[in-house]
Amino acid sequence: MPSRRPSQMTRAEFLSTFGAVFEHSPWIAEDTFERGLSAAQDGVAGLHQALCLTLKSAGRQRQLTLIRAHPDLAGKLAVAGRLSAASANEQAGAGLDQCRPEEFAQFNRLNTVYTKRFGFPFILAVKGRDRAAILAALEARVDNDPASEFGTALREIERIALFRLEEIFAE
């Protein structure tokens, strides 16, 4: 649990605690704080709802920028050790840091196809999933239509944010 309830935090405390919930996008926490927080946002569910409302009310371009801020799963940034701490932990938890060479090649091939088709990386909340399930999801979604996939990416980002908030509140 954070040392203070979100509704009682200063702006600096709130951003320090929740600014990284959305990958490289502290603007979501900033905008949520500026909208004002009440006791209803002092728990995981309420704060998640407030943060997601900020995301949903953002324009398409800001949403696309958020989507593009995510790394490929089992991609080059992971190999180079250049993921955010949260992404590195999430990918490692799903075993993506232990891909066999043929799995890594398959992820890279599908990530490339996916990104060329949609203009953003494949996003999936990997917590509770293994490499095979993640690869199967990527294979299934690569043929989706762009509008559906944009919406799916945002919903997956919201799930990732929920998992990250649960971790923050559990500490």
What does it look like?
With 171 residues, the chain is mainly α. It has helices at residues 11-18, 27-35, 44-57, 60-68, 76-79, 85-93, 101-118, 131-141, 146-170. It has a domain at 71-156: Oxo-4-hydroxy-4-carboxy-5-ureidoimidazoline decarboxylase (UraD-like), CATH 1.10.3330. The radius of gyration is 16 Å and the shape is globular.
Keywords:
171 residues; globular; mainly alpha; UraD-like
Cα end-to-end separation? 5 Å
* Poorly predicted spans: none
CATH-assigned homologous superfamily of the domain at 71-156:
Oxo-4-hydroxy-4-carboxy-5-ureidoimidazoline decarboxylase
Q: In angstroms, what is the radius of gyration? A: 16 Å
CATH class of the domain at 71-156: Mainly Alpha
What is the third-level CATH name, the topology of the domain at 71-156? Answer: UraD-like
Total beta strand runs: 0
So, CATH architecture of the domain at 71-156?
Orthogonal Bundle
Q: How would you sum up the global shape?
A: globular
Mean pLDDT: 90
How large is the share of residues in beta strands? under 5%
Tally of separate helices: 9
H/E element string? Answer: HHHHHHHHH
Helix content: 55-70%
Structural class: mainly alpha
Major sheet attributes = none
